[in-house]
Design a protein that fits this description.
Number of domains of chain B: 3
Largest interface: A-B, 52 and 37 residues
Number of domains of chain A: 1
Shape of chain A: globular
Largest sheet of chain B: 6 strands, mixed
Number of strands of chain A: 0
CATH topology of the largest domain in chain B: Immunoglobulin-like
CATH architecture of chain A: Orthogonal Bundle
Strand content of chain A: under 5%
CATH architecture of the largest domain in chain B: Sandwich
Largest sheet of chain A: none
Oligomer: heterodimer
Order of helices and strands of chain B: HHHHHHEEEEEEEEEEE
Distance between the termini of chain A: 36 Å
Number of helices of chain B: 6
Shape of chain B: elongated
Number of strands of chain B: 11
Structural class of chain A: mainly alpha
Helix content of chain B: 25-40%
Strand order of the largest sheet of chain B: 1-7-8-5-10-11
Strand content of chain B: 25-35%
Radius of gyration of chain B: 43 Å
Radius of gyration of chain A: 17 Å
CATH superfamily of chain A: RNA polymerase sigma factor, region 2, helix turn helix motif
CATH superfamily of the largest domain in chain B: Alpha-macroglobulin, receptor-binding domain
Amino acid sequence: MIEHDDRECVTQCLAGNTEAFEVLVERYYRQIFNIAYRMTNNNNDSEDITQSVFIKVYEKLDMYNQRHKFFSWIYRIAVNETLNHLKQNNRIEGLNRDYISEDKTPDESYEEIELSDKLQDALMCIGLEYKSLIVLKHFQHLSYREIAFILDIPEKKVKSRLFTARHLLRDVLSDRGIELNDR
Amino acid sequence: MIDKKYIELIEKEIDGTITPEEKARLRKGLEKDAEAQKSYQEQIQVSRLLHQIPTIEPPPGLKKRIINSVNFKGDTVKIRKPAFRPSIFKKFSKHTPRLAFAFGVGLVLGIFLHMVFFTDQYSMSKSDLMGTIGMHEKGYFNTVTEIPIKGSDVKGVMIITQYRDHLGCEVNLVSTGDVELLVEFDPFHIQFQGFKPFSQSRIVIENGENYIRSSNSAEVHFVSFFSRMLPVATQIEVTLSRKGSVKFHRKIPLEQIEENDETHE
């Protein structure tokens, strides 16, 4: 249904309806920001990337092939934009705790923030190709097929690389003394 | 390293899409393989951990910033030119001086070659040459008449050849200056078909309804082809002149050929 709405929004955008584009921004800017953040570990960079992703989306809207899902297409742009950004700037910063969402008790939030911090740090230690897979699979909850489209690799490779990515992440976490058994 | 066949099953388990049969197969396989069992545990634990991580809320104002940054009134949504164009121009612009130099050298060389090999060859007026030239099966026309030309200022030979309904008029002359060759014929029975130069000398061909006039420079060798309507074409008339003075004139009778004559030798 959302996908249908996305395509309708795209059609309306191409017809000159700017409000339809605002709907798309509202629908996806959080996810794009999260993808960028998990891969860059930098708030300012993530904001810049999110902004440039939507500018590109608008500029290339007439090139969007409606055979694909809109979110796959925009995620693809987001991942590529982030990878390009990372190649140009290699900055790593800690997580800004002010941005953690959800309504949680202070204890729950602190625990999650601490875990999120450590995991984010660990994530920054593995290669980009593995990091993007973890982000798309475990933070964006995409299917293997969708990830394959976004990263432009075969579905089988998505599975084998994901397996390796989790293994690498586990090694980094173990090296930092994070025990996984009781989680 | 874990067997690849388990990777698929572990991914399904993480996804929650594993069937009871597949799960049983996975469990059975892992029981026999301690390393696979360890990897399986790691994968499940890391996946569970990752699912506990909260979503990051973007900073307030980001949406507004995005909307404001998009140029809705600009040339954004439109039919775009192919993306390769700018890169091509960019690539070429890098090498503009070299390309300009190469182009200049090529141009000069081209003009030089044209002057040497083409300019002095021949030119046409009034009509384009076209048509089919029939050739004898042995590759040559039969000579009808061979006319030696011997003058004080022009020497050479003119050869009239024939193959069935085609005629050739070959001219090979050396003169002290320009000469003009006029071949006249009955247009109802003979038609000019084509022209082939054998020398690099300048030749100007003028094709009239009942004549071909060629103006040649000092040394010339070419052949003109004609088709004739069987069987009534009987002759062609050749006139060679220089500076308006007729040097040679002759009516050349053609061999009579029957329509059913296939082997004219």
